Amino acid sequence: MTFTKEITNRLRNHRTPFYYYDMDILRETLTIASREASSRGFTVHYALKANFNPVIMKTIAEYGFGADCVSGNEIEHALNCGFQPGDTVFAGVGKSDQEIETGLRLGIKCFNCESIAELKVIDEIAARMGKKAPVALRINPNIEAHTIRHITTGTDENKFGIRIPELEEVVTVMSGLHNIVFRGIHFHIGSQITDLNPYRNLCTRVNEIYDWFTDRGLEPEVINVGGGLGINYNEPETLPPFEQYFNVFSTHLDRKIRSSISFELGRSLTASCGSLISSVLFVKEGASETFVILDAGMTELLRPALYHAFHLIENLTSELPVKKYTVAGPVCETTDTFGKFISLPETQRGDIIAIRSAGAYGEAMASRYNLRSLPGSLYSDSI
Ligand SMILES: *Cc1c(COP(=O)(O)O)cnc(C)c1O
């Protein structure tokens, strides 16, 4: 249980809003994920865009995970937090020249490359720097991930990856680029995926594409199947189903490629350990609902405003009978709402509210809109 009376009392001594990280939950998540992956011979890179808080990052690095970066700054930050360059990969549909230089200079494991134009630019920059650039091709497998439309990435309508019909040309062009070293293939079909069937379909596609490459004399040593494993936002204390997830891949991928598989997990590693802690500023009667106005809003946790994401909301300090409330933030936007008509014990000014499962895409997406201060962070090990 994350929020015992004792912890709630300690949290009361700190100025809200802030992120609170339960480090025991983080360590438990990391223990299970790394055990289930390594027992199958799989490698996991942590997608640090989910949460780049240095305390969280250092803990993840201690468990031996690699890093999956989507910017040059993320590469530098990952190395500063203890990740190894040889375990760091760089993805992203729009890498700038400077970011490519950063990756080459720091000697990362692989660039996940998304187009012919990008391959040519990486080749040119590598030539100029006297380096060879290790590259995996990000292939769009055209698989429907059955998740929120805004966070699906692996279908034909997306900007991400190389479409299968383009592969022939990509491989031809690549063979003429002498500063590119082909390392493997990369896929990522979306985020917050809770139905494991899309992953089964991905495995079938990966097997076919692997054979397509070997038929052409190219041996993918790295087969990166991306991330996206979802969590149960209704049950903050339940950890993601790592065993079932990794099992899909050990069951459905061809035996000959299983030893080269890597993953890029973000949300599933960090979401459960984090909560956004906020105080109730005002309880306000509307025409048809009662508003609870918090001192945290979309500037601290953007997901509900950005794509109607659901987070469980708890009042940690009231034990009164339950009423229905609309919980909103202080920011000047109507979408700055965390939940409509939700049940909470009767709530008053000064109550402490926890917005759960906010350890991924929470603190990392915080902004200074309305010139608000960025949220601080507290850790269960040190409050
Ligand atoms: C965002 C992202 C991930 C991580 O996704 P999660 O849903 O957080 O697991 C992995 N790979 C790539 C390329 C990404 O863009």
- How far apart lie the N and C ends? 16 Å
Quick one: biggest sheet?
Answer: 8 strands, mixed
Mean pLDDT: 95
Q: What string, H for helix and E for strand, traces the elements in order?
A: HEHEHEHEHEHEEHEHEHEHEEHEEEEE
User: Which distinct ligands sit in these coordinates?
Assistant: pyridoxal-5'-phosphate
CATH superfamily of the largest domain: Alanine racemase
Q: What's the architecture of the largest domain, going by CATH?
A: Alpha-Beta Barrel
> How would the global form be characterised?
elongated
**Main CATH class of the largest domain:** Alpha Beta
Could you please say which CATH topology of the largest domain applies here? Answer: TIM Barrel
Low-confidence stretches: none
SS-based structural class?
Answer: alpha/beta
Count every helix, treating DSSP H or I runs of 4 or more residues as helices.
Answer: 11
Count the E strands.
17
SS strand fraction: 15-25%
**How many individual domains?**
2
Radius of gyration: 22 Å
Fraction in helix: 25-40%
Key attributes of the depicted protein:
383 residues, alpha/beta, Lyase, Ornithine Decarboxylase, Chain A, domain 1, TIM Barrel, eight-stranded mixed beta sheet, eight-stranded parallel β-barrel, 17 strands, elongated, binds pyridoxal-5'-phosphate
Task: Give the structure's gist in a few sentences.
Helix content is 30%, strand content 23%.
Task: Give an overview of the whole structure.
There is one protein chain. The protein is α/β, with parallel strands linked by helices and 383 residues long. The chain has two domains: 5-18 and 272-379, Lyase, Ornithine Decarboxylase, Chain A, domain 1; 23-270, TIM Barrel (Alpha-Beta Barrel). Helix content is 30%, strand content 23%. It has eleven helices and 17 strands. The strands form two sheets. Strands 1, 11, 12, 13, 14, 15, 16 and 17 form an eight-stranded mixed β-sheet that branches. It has an eight-stranded parallel beta barrel with strand order 2-3-4-5-6-8-9-10, surrounded by four helices. α5 (97-106) crosses α6 (116-129). The relative contact order is 0.16. The mean pLDDT is 95. Pyridoxal-5'-phosphate (PLP) is lined by residues 47, 49-50, 68, 70, 91, 188, 191, 226-229, 264-268.
